[in-house]
Write a structure and sequence with these properties.
CATH class of the largest domain: Alpha Beta
CATH superfamily of the largest domain: P-loop containing nucleotide triphosphate hydrolases
Number of helices: 24
Largest sheet: 8 strands, mixed
Strand content: 5-15%
CATH architecture of the largest domain: 3-Layer(aba) Sandwich
Number of strands: 19
Strand order of the largest sheet: 12-13-14-11-15-16-10-17
Structural class: alpha/beta
Helix content: 25-40%
Radius of gyration: 33 Å
Number of domains: 3
Amino acid sequence: MSDGGLLLNFDLSDQPLKRQVKYTGGRWRDRVSAQRNAKRNGDGQSIDANATPVSTNRRDGNPALLPDDIRNGRPAKRQRIQSDAHHERSDMSSRSLSYMTGKLPPGSINAGPKNAGQGNKPGGVTSRLFTSNPTPKTIFEDPVEDTEPAVPSNAPLSEEAENFHALGLSRRIAQHLSSKLEMKAPTSIQKNTIPLLVKEDSDAFLQAQTGSGKTLAYLLPIVQRIMAMSQHDGGTDARAQIHRDSGLFAIILAPTRELCKQIATVLEKVLRCAPWIISTTVIGGESKKSEKARLRKGVNILVATPGRLADHLDNTKVLDVGTVRWLVLDEGDRLMEMGFEDELKSIVSKIRKEELKDYSKDGVKLDKLPQRRVTILCSATMKRNVQKLGEISLQDAVHITGTKSEDDGEDTAEINEAVFAAPSQLKQAYLIVPAKLRLVTLIALLKSSFARRGSVMKAIIFISCADSVDFHFELFRNVNTRSASSEEPSITENTVADAAYITSPANPTVALLKLHGSLPQPVRTATLNSFRTSNDPCVLITTDIASRGLDVPAVDLVIEYDPAFSVDDHTHRIGRTARAGRPGKAVLFIQPGCEEGYIDLLNSTTSSVAPQSYESTLQKGFFTPITLPRGDKETDPITLVSEKPTPNSRAEALQLHIEQRLLASEKEGGNSKLLDSGRQAFRSHIRAYATHVRDERKYFDITQLHLGHAAKSYGLREAPGGIGGGPSRRTFRAGQSKGSEPRGGDKTDNNRASGKRRADDGDIPALDEAAASRMRMKMKEVMNVASEFNIG
């Protein structure tokens, strides 16, 4: 070589060179589809002989194919084409909307794994629930069936051993309890409490398991001693010396309106044997004018919420507490948690300040009543706030439990170490469920629970916030089933409906109800009454507003879909079942990861239960096909059919159906507006997740929560923004009148959205306006030194 250059010898084959194609711009799905097409073409599939792939940055992301005229140097006009992915995506959208109305044949939506021969169609959307899930650290064991059922720990005692008359109650009351209320024997807490309160005038602190009868334990002695003031107590035609004008003898305080209503209902049943003794309630949300009218007529036993009672003590002159002998503080720990400390101090001081009267208004000597003011504090737990409340209200009190009678030399240290335990007959289970699978697992659990007739009659689902309750109620309800049955709308039109997804041939109709503090008080009362009196299978979706003190008969299942904000709240939640000796089951949803440590904390306070995986629940729930809710114009139910009749494929098909249903509600302008409701519920859920008590926050670490997976449990394909951006503008909830008392969804939305209140709920708005204002001021002081997700 004359130029002295380097000669490079390349061995070129006869095959053309493969040029690397880079796709830029356009949609992500289109670029992936184009890259897959190029890969298939490069692997030996047919290629147009007159075309050559080149790199491009077209908007649609597809490679441009250059014809012969461009290779020959002749420029050609660029043709405008639409990608196949766009056609397939539009077709998929139309098919999804048609599938919502049942116009397409079953199986038209592919929710299972792709067939090998079909390939992955561009634009097809599949909900993958069983990939990219965290691996649980817990080792699952096969559940062991109990050979012998546990002996109930809160059941009534043997009738041969004990009866109410032997405890010091009159025969009139004992016969009434036996014949009218069908109560043959007392429970342990009643056996230990009634004789002491009937004979002595000392303060008392009652502590017992949920469902053990604490309400009757303090009501019966009060009624007995008031009845003792009547002439000829045993006679049926006796003239009573004590009547409604004789004065107010007992005040019972409860933290929530629902609990006040329940106590008043129980008291009314007991007083049917003494109709001359009158009781009434004063609670927030009711007409203050009508309450003053009832107080003016006269009342002997008053059931009230602290905020409303403090208001009446300040502004109602007719309310005379000079004859009050008993002050009962029910659910003392909850009273302190809800910020009633100032109201309770004011009430106790005003009652003690008033001089105790020895004679009634009509001159009857009250010598058979306690000669001092007796305070009774009831609480299932012994926390610091309860001890503080005891210091405010109790004087030389005796501690009464459901296991041993008091005055047995027990010292204060032993009392403080008293640990509340769940009823022994309560079966508890913990499901380790990844975030993406929470929604379908909940549906599978409910569907399997109602698969047999009579196996579960009533179930309660506890959720952390009111927005999430609203979303799940709208998601699970069957549209236009209840409203079409009656011409005039009912007060519970938006809180009671027929359920979808969870029905079965054995239970073709299951009632669905919702309850939270953002609902107006008449709606709350009517909804709870519908759940209590229903003879059909029903499910109540609620917040912690229903976790304390409510006694609903025949509750067989309690589901904690969102874990409680403290172990004590968890104990009260599961206490809604297995009451008065009945069996019951409680299921807690836990996510893999740091939340698994919460199980060890629960096992230290309750009976140890081996955790379970979600797989068995899906197997039981989706063993049979799923019936979808009917549309507005549909008359026949639609059956969800997946590509393969397996539980996992049915779960994916159900998830895809829910996601498309949310999108369709926005596109079609549906009345439910499920998409907006799901987004708001997700935001409220994340804010509530960050407000667990400080000692348990290590198990519920907000930084470890996968927001995208959590959004999947709300039927969302991506996590919406605006979680930590402060409260959003909200409108008044449907069904709330302009003049009704503000609830948690209105003026207190700022508190709930920013995480100031732990759980949601109508607890703060359940107070009167002055108390709520003071509570908000306290919260503002806390928020000045704490971040949104770091509140103790």
